[in-house]
Amino acid sequence: MTMTSDELGERAEHELERQKTFRERLHCCTAAGCQSCGGDAVRASLKQQVKASGVEAQVEIVGTGCMGLCSKGPLVKRESDEALFLEVKPDDAQALIEASASPSLEARRVDPKTHPFFAGQLRIVLANAGTVDPERVESYLAAGGYSALAHALTTMKPGEVVAEVTKAGLRGRGGAGYPTGVKWQLVAKQLNETKYVVCNADEGDPGAFMDRSVLEGDPHRVLEGMAIAGYAVGANHGYIYVRGEYALAISRLQLAIKQAEKEGILGARVLDTSFRFQVELRIGAGAFVCGEETALLNSIEGKRGEPRPRPPYPPEKGLWEKPTLINNVETFANIAPIITRGSEWFSNIGTEKSKGTKVFAVAGKTMHSGLVEVPMGTPVRQIVTQMAGGIAGGGKVKAIQTGGPSGGCVPEHLLDVPVDYESLVAVGSMMGSGGLIVMDETTSMVEIARYFMEFCMDESCGKCVPCRAGTVQMHTLLQKFCDAEATEADLDLLKKLADLLRATSLCGLGQSAPNPVMTALRYFPHEFAACMKPTAKGASS
Amino acid sequence: MSVKTLTIDGKMMTGVEGDTVFTVAFHNQVQIPRLCHLGGIPDVGACRMCLVEVEGRSKLSASCMTTIEEGMVVRTDTETLREYRKLLMELLLAEGNHVCSVCVSNGNCELQALAAYLGVDHVRVPYRHPRREVDLSHERFGLDHNRCIACTRCVRTCDEVEGAHVWDMAGRGEKLHLVADLGEPWGDSENCTKCGKCVQVCPTGALFTKGSAVGEMEKDRSFLKYIVYGRERHQWVKKP
Question: Which residues pair with A238 in a beta bridge?
Answer without folding.
Answer: A197, A279
